[in-house]
Amino acid sequence: MTIYFKTPQGVAEIANRSGAIGQRARRLLILIDGQRSRAELHALAADPDIATTLDQLIDAGFIAEAPAHAETPPPPEASELDHASAQGLQKARNFMINTLRAYHGHYNKMNLIKRIDELSSQLRAVM
To answer: Could you tell me the residue ranges of all domains in the chain?
Structure first.
């Protein structure tokens, strides 16, 4: 079972779209996550010539084959997940408040801003 992972160059290609690869190869590159087998990628990509596309991505340095004996990485610690979730909540809160202030001014919609703060603390308590 062959597993592929993105190289740093592949991650950069997804983030920046240099145009070095075509749409079919880009779609396949997005699907590659270091967990899916070649068969799973074939089913998801619906690419009749997946072998050629994979070879193109390998030759361009966007992906590499995972070693056959590689272990899957351990799942993240619960504290890491909690921290990431808390950061996500904080970002969502800031986005909502900044959007309200941008469209309605700093002192309008104060009731809504207070409710957002209250709900943020309630969500944090549930997590």
So the answer is: 4-65, 78-126
User: Does this model's pTM top 0.70?
Assistant: no
pLDDT tens digits, 62-102: 999 887 655 555 555 555 556 667 777 778 888 888 888 88
H/E element, 65: strand 63-65
Sign of the dihedral defined by the CA atoms of residues 39, 41, 45, 50, in that order: negative
Instruction: Give every CB contact of residue 39 below 8 A, 6+ residues apart in sequence.
Output: 1
As given in the structure block, the two tokens for residue 16 are 């920046």
Cα-Cα-Cα-Cα dihedral sign, residues 101, 103, 107, 110:
negative
Question: CB of 20 within 8 A of CB of 57?
Answer: no
